[in-house]
Amino acid sequence: MLEHVVLGLWRKIHRTGRVAEPAPPPPGGDRSPAAAALGGSVQVRHVDAGSCNGCEVEIGSAFGPVYDAERYGARLVASPRHADALLVTGPVTRNMTEPLRRTYDAVPGPKLVVAVGDCARNCGAFAGAYGVTGAVSDVLPVDVEITGCPPRPEAIVEGLRKLTGR
Q: Is residue 134 helix, strand or coil?
């Protein structure tokens, strides 16, 4: 009985095929020389420099099955030594300033930095807080900024597509 159900489900899957939204047009504008050197693929290391975790939820969605940032050549990696780019969220706190610099130094060149969310761009709601050093651009050179509090997964994928060119 169970085999019959599974076989029927398999046949339906085979007849239907792959169902996905069509990809939006490729991002416009000039790519930085460092992004062009990546050859359409980017390995990304995420760093939380002091965020409220709203951006992390959206990053999880951007790399999940619905938005699937991997189909555009962006892949999360566990080590900065394997990364081409840093995806930084939150304002840079005093306790994360030096670890963020060390993480950036561990990324082999050419390396890129993506500031995700308003807090990473300009400290957002945390501007002027006693424990905040500043925005990501105050600590590292930023190549791409993604706006929003938190940014929508579509915006994160669009920002990553600017790096991959796909």
A: strand
Residues 6+ positions from 22 with CB-CB distance below 8 Å? none
Query: What is the DSSP pairing of strand 144-146 with strand 112-116?
Result: parallel
Please name the helix (run of DSSP H) or strand (run of DSSP E) that holds residue 109, with its range, or none.
none
Structure tokens at 165: 């060119």
| Distances, alpha carbon 22 to alpha carbons 35, 63, 115, 155, in Å | 24, 17, 27, 17
CA 53 from centroid of its chain's CA atoms = 14
* Residue 131 scores a pLDDT above 80: yes
What is the pTM assigned to this prediction?
A: 0.83
Angstrom distance (rounded) from CA 34 to CA 57: 28
DSSP 8-state symbol, 85: E
Average pLDDT over residues 141-154: 93
**Looking at residue 144, what DSSP letter applies?**
E
Q: Which residue matches tokens 């969310």?
A: 117
Beta carbons within 10 angstroms of residue 123's beta carbon: 21
What residues are paired with 112 via a beta bridge?
A: 85
